[in-house]
Input
Amino acid sequence: MKYQSFWVSGFVLAAVLAGCGKDDKNKDGGGGMMMNGAQSAALVTADFTDAVGVLVIDSTSQSLRLKDSSNLSLSLQGSGGGNNAGSESSGGKKGENGDGSLVKVGDDGQVKAALSSGGSEADDMNNCCKPEIPRVKTIAVSPSKEVYLHFERPFVYKNPENSADWSKVWDASNGYQCQIFKVKGGNLDELRSEAPSIDEGNLECLDNLHFVDSWQASRNSVFQFDENSNVYYPGSLPNGGGKMVVYRYDAVTHQTTEVINSNICVQDFLVTKAGGVFYTGTSSCANGGGGGGDGGFFRYVSPASQVREIARDWWNFVFEPVQGATGDQAVFFGPDPRNATTASWNNACLFNFDPAAGTSAAQSISEKITCGADIWSWINLSRPEDITAYGNYSTGSTTIPDNWVGEYKNRCTSSGKIFAGGGSQISSIKQDSTGKIYVIGKVRKKKEGALTCSLSVKGPHCAIAGFPYLPGHATYGTEATCQAASGTWVTDEGRCSASKTTRDECLDEAGTESWFYNEVQYNNIASDYCGETASSNANYVDALYSATVQDVESGTAGSAGTAFATTKFRRGWLGCQVKGAGMNSGDWTEEFKSLAKVDNSTKTLQLLSATDEQAINLWLINDVPYYSTFNTTQGKYFLKRWDSLSSSSLAVAENFEAYNL
Output
């Protein structure tokens, strides 16, 4: 059973239940009929009276149950399929040729046919069939709440003035056929409250010279709108080879104009509230849109019809127009347009385009997140925003501020941070009205890291398997606990002020000699001491120190340095490695196909879906993210919504694959 569109309680749903599909028996045919010498157009009436939802389906008698936060349940029964919905059981009047692909749901949960078609009086007198109409493919509601319908193919929607002109209706260029319509009779609220007249039908043809090929309807709907309810749609000239052109239908003047012409091969487009258009394409439709070897491009047409190229040489740009403080902007996934080298996966990332910021790519393009290929710049605090916040330091600096060390440690040892790009494809991008950006795609989840460094230690301490533990350590802080753990209590690394070899011999020399400790070096170790600072550990010496740790038997200081009993340590080069693994950066992340949200403050992604599910599609309904997903643990599909209050995903439908909301 296929469900293509549905609105109810503020959201629209389209989905497929696996195994319930039904072949369309009416893929061919002209729509409009000639019988016993009588011709008739398909005078179609759309009736949304008392509807709480409208559903585009291809079904037999099946059942669907949905639940939202208000525990709403709907049941589809006896809705029919193909052109069989005109029966009494499906809500149509007997004898009418209703279209079972479009049904309405009443507040009582009953499903009835929403379309019917009428023919000539001669056909009624002959008790003959009404003209056949194609299936509805998509529905759309404009900002002014007008309803639009797109059928799977054009059909004859009006009768010629002269019966002798019927031969002309089969030539699409004569304007008797149409595929995309507006429902007359007012906005959605008015259509729901007042029944239409079915004498002449209530569909107004939007454009009877251009038609939508099936491949051009790749978006959820062929209709898009700006904030003034002007309609944008793809279309082809009759017998035009299927080349896609984008048109704009003015809601006031009812004039159709060309927004993107046929000189290029358009692949996809999205319209902004202000009437700008972002689109992808190639310079030629040769080789299936490959442009004869030319790479694809991503462009913007402003409301003033100025064209701007954003990026190029990429086969799969994914983009979402957004409303920024300076006007139209777009978030897109693709190679870095600021890079002069050949576009590649290595520099692909999530970027923001702001045409008001300047004319060059360096001015108008900025990263939205830290890219997966550049995770080290995030860990090393070397991104421009990190340098601004923490200063320009490196892990090899001899003097590093405490806050820099603390942040480096946090980023290294953290787990779960999400990155994208660098070979991981983003497949969907959405932004809500408050500026929150959600994505679905292959994202990279950071593994837990271990802070490493080299350490120099002066003074008595424990050494176990090449790791130092200073006096006072919770486990190995005394000579006894150190030796009990098969460690070595280091005291003999040094020299005596007299000619003695060991510390004990030195300090037994009449109580007048001193033992001066050498630095004991520990290289590339993962130790808690690596993240210590002077403010957190009194034993830490920030810089190279000249004072010699001197162990004296008496209270008299030797001439070689100042006597003090506390062991000291200093840190050398800082590092970070995957916990339990080597230094191979390829081990840093695990890849998941997930729903994630952009964290603008850290320029990272926050994972919203579980790691045992594979997110598929993403929609925003009233700023609420809904997504379809396949749970690999349970082995079934879900439709879920992200609940920001509980910070959790809530199931809307179970064992159910959603295709369109």
